[in-house]
């Protein structure tokens, strides 16, 4: 089993995110349950438990993860109810939706990430006796390379309506890399496909707490590289229509969660976006 690096490896951030999902799952008012998260965190050996929720930055990331996870879960389930039969998770990290969402057994999951992620993740899932609810394929690939070819080789069908979930990756890539990824997935998206993504928004540039978070990310060797200025224009140019666009802070408020930063002065900080493939 391979270990994750504590710094300089974007995969290590997925351990922290899994830690927050595990914490959320223990709450009486949990927004979701992720019963496999704690096993993945423990197996990593990373000291993520040192991140204390009393610290405002830690609390901000925790509440953001909880809110975005619920937003995406709800919309994946809704897309499947409308007929989508493939879910693709580029930069899947330690995601366990193939196990925990309880989707119909004819819904196929495709998880795309670097080989070292799966070298760590798969043995832990096997040792946990985890059973996906339907077909699940792992696709070791770099999103800056020819990942769609590898996705297709794993059984992805471009004629089947698909839910694409870009949850925690766009901010770590450049604008050009993000454009390329969106171009590539759009080219193989059947009518009825749906796109979900999380990205930084223009307010992240000046908002003080986000600047502090950006500095921490840079110090860890995984600095933020981009934000999406206009989601409507970004996806619209590639044949998608926005179905819902909000921010993590706004959505959190609708489900009783306070994400502790202010968008009033500098505007939206982090987008949550749902788009549908234009016919």
Automatic annotation (TrEMBL):
Single GO term (MF): methyltransferase activity
Organism: Rhodococcus qingshengii
Protein task: Exhibits S-adenosyl-L-methionine-dependent methyltransferase activity.
InterPro entries in the cross-refs: Ppm1/Ppm2/Tcmp, SAM-dependent_MTases_sf, SAM_mthyl_Trfase_ML2640-like
Family from the record: Belongs to the UPF0677 family.
GO BP of this protein: methylation
Coiled-coil region(s): none
Keywords per UniProt: Methyltransferase, S-adenosyl-L-methionine, Transferase
Pfam families: LCM
Protein name: S-adenosyl-L-methionine-dependent methyltransferase
Enzyme Commission numbers on file: 2.1.1.-
Top-level taxon of the source organism: Bacteria
């Amino acid at each position: 089993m391979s270990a994750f690096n504590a710094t300089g490896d974007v995969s290590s951030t997925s351990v922290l995110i899994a830690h927050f999902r595990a914490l959320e799952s223990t709450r009486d008012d949990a927004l979701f349950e992720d019963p496999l998260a704690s096993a993945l965190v423990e197996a990593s050996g990373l000291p993520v438990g040192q991140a204390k929720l009393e610290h405002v930055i830690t609390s901000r990331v925790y509440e953001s993860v909880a809110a975005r996870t619920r937003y995406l879960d709800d919309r994946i389930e809704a897309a499947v109810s409308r007929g989508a039969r493939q879910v693709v998770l580029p930069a899947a990290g330690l995601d366990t939706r193939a196990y925990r969402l309880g989707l119909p057994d004819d819904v196929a999951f495709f998880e795309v990430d670097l080989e070292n992620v799966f070298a760590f993740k798969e043995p832990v899932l096997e040792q946990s006796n985890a059973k996906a609810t339907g077909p699940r394929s792992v696709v070791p690939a770099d999103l800056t390379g020819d990942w769609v070819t590898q996705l297709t080789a794993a059984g992805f069908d471009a004629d089947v309506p698909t839910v694409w979930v870009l949850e925690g990756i766009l901010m770590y890539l450049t604008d050009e890399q993000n454009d390329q990824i969106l171009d590539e997935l759009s080219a193989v998206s059947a009518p009825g496909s749906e796109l979900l993504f999380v990205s930084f928004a223009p307010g992240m540039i000046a908002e003080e707490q986000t600047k502090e978070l950006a500095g921490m990310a840079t110090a860890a060797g995984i600095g933020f590289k981009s934000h999406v200025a206009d989601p409507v224009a970004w996806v619209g140019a590639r044949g998608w229509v926005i179905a819902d666009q909000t921010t993590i802070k706004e959505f959190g408020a609708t489900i009783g969660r306070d994400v502790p930063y202010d968008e009033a002065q500098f505007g939206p900080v982090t987008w949550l976006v749902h788009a549908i493939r234009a016919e």
